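It would be a great kindness if you could assist me with a short task in structural biology. I am sending you one protein, given as its amino acid sequence and as whole-number tokens for its backbone shapes. I would ask you to consider whether the tokens describe a fold that such a sequence might reasonably adopt. The full record is reproduced below for your convenience.
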Amino acid sequence: QVQLVESGGGLVQDGDSLRLSCAYSGRTNHNYVMAWFRQAPGKEREFAAAVTLGGSNTYYRDSVKGRLTISSDMAKNTVYLGMSGLKPEDTAVYYCPLDARGRWSERTDPSIYWYWGQGTQVTVSS
């Protein structure tokens, strides 16, 4: 059984930076896929970024390219999401789900992720 715990969210100003962490426990493999999704109030959950736990593959939605950086440290059992140039529209609850079947080709589809954390709130004020 895999458990995921997100942390690092908070209230920041427009243009600030944050780094979110997702600590995981349980049996894992370098081919597993971890993503960051986010859900703003009144909106559907949307894909932001994904990485294979071994770190060899990363992928971002177009609107966050250049501002978000996803990385994986298997030695620490942690995946990170670095965020810079934050905007009010980045305000959301951020989740880090894990796919334990290595389905990289479907990385933006939330249904492939069996394990989800509780989320961490990021609020960007203007």
